[in-house]
Each structure stands twice: as C-alpha cells, then as structure tokens.
Amino acid sequence: MIAFGCFTFVATSISLSMALTAVVLIGMGVGLPYAAMFSRAGALFPGRAAAAMGLVNMLGILMILGGAPLVGHLADLTGTFRVSFAVLGGFALTVCAIIPLIDSAEPKTLA
Question: Which residues have a Cβ under 8 Å from the Cβ of 28 and sit 6 or more positions away?
Fold first, then answer.
C-alpha cells in the first residue's frame, strides 16, 4: 500500500481523487502494521509487553527523525518531491522483499 501510494505521487500530474487515494493508502500502510506488531510483542513477551511495545515505537520514531530530513534533503537536491516519493516507494518494496527472511521461530522461554 505504501509503495503504491508513493509511486502514485511520482506522476507529473494526478487528480485530486488519486492524490487522496494515495494519501489514504500510505496512511493505512503505515498505521495498520502497528496492531500486528503490538499483538506479537505482547504474545512473545507477556511479562514485558510494554517494553516490547516501547521498542516498536522507538524504531518508528527513529525512522521519522532520520527519514524526514533525508526526504527534505533529497527534495532540495533534485528540486522536486517526486524523487523522494520514488525512493520511499522503493524502500517500502525493499522492506517487503526482506520480510520473508526474518526468523519467525518462537523464542525459548526461561522457566
């Protein structure tokens, strides 16, 4: 969803309805995974669910703090945000390609 939304903004001219659809797709793509991450964090570490959720939020904040200035700098270098949206869409696709490589084995619990 994020990649499709970002690549929609790469076009030189889009309609208002396409722009709104792209914004909704990006928002949903960014927001929906948090429910799964929080549920999984709580299930993996039931005694430390709040700490696991804090870690998830911290990683998101790091991406916001680092990513926003990079997007702005790229827009300054190129004179347009189209390149920034293309890079963000490519980043989203790269993350999707890496997800199957993540180890999904259950951690061993300490008795």
Answer: 1
Contact 2, 26 (CB under 8 A): yes
Place of tokens 């300054």: 76
Per residue in 15-69, pLDDT (tens digit) is 999 999 999 999 999 888 877 877 777 777 778 878 877 877 888 888 889 888 9
DSSP code for 110: P
The DSSP line for 39-106 is HHHHHH-GGGHHHHHHHHHHHHHHHHHHHHHHHHHHHHHHSSSHHHHHHHHHHHHHHHHHGGGS--PP
Q: What is the pLDDT of residues 26-38, one digit of tens each?
A: 999 988 887 787 7
Residue ranges of domains in the chain: 2-98
Q: What is the rounded CA–CA span in Å between residue 38 and residue 50?
A: 9
**pTM of the entire predicted model:** 0.74
